[in-house]
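Sample intake sheet
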Amino acid sequence: MVSSHPRHYSKGRGSIQVKSLLSGWITIFVLWGLITTAHGYDWESLKVGVSTAADVKKVLGEPTHEYRDQLLYENQRLDVEDPSFPPVRLNTVVLNLDTDKKIESIFLFPLYGTTNKELRPLFGVGHRMPYRTFLSSMGEFKVGAGTRPNEKLHYIELDAPCEVYPQFRILVIYGIQDVITGDDLIRLIVAY
C-alpha cells in the first residue's frame, strides 16, 4: 500500500525492494569513498602505484618468471606482526605492472587450506560482499569469467564471496568453506 507521499511505501514487497536497493547503493558509495581515500597496503615494503619492477627485484631478487607486465615469485610469505601467529605461506605472488613498470596490483595466492582466520591478525574483519559488488564499486561493469577488465584476465565467479579491507586496499576472495571448521578457504588476496 502506498501512502499519500509518492516515495513512501508503508507495507508489502516494494518496501523491502527499495530498502534492499538503497542498501546496495549505499554500500557501493561507502566502499568507493573508502577505496579512493585509502593509502594502500605495502607487502615486503613494496607499494602499489609507487614501487617499480626494479624495486621489486631489489627486495625479492630475480623472479621465478618474468613477463612484459608481470613478475611471478614462488614460495613467499605474508608476515603477521603478532609473533604468536605464524606467517601466512604463499604459493605464488604475481606483481602486475603498468606501462610505466610500476606495480598496478599484487596477487597473493596462499597455500591451499589457508583460512580467513589466519588473516584476522593482519587485517581484522572486513566488509563481506560478492565479487560482482566489489567490481561494480570499482567501476567495472563488463566483467565476468573470461573478460579482460584492465587487460587482466579474470576467472573469479561474480558471485564468489569476498571480503574487502578498503583502509588497506586489500580484497580477499574466498573459495569453499572448510567442512570441519566452517572457516572460509582463501583463493586469492589482492592488493590494489
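Comment: The chain has a mean pLDDT of 78. Residues 13-191 form one domain.
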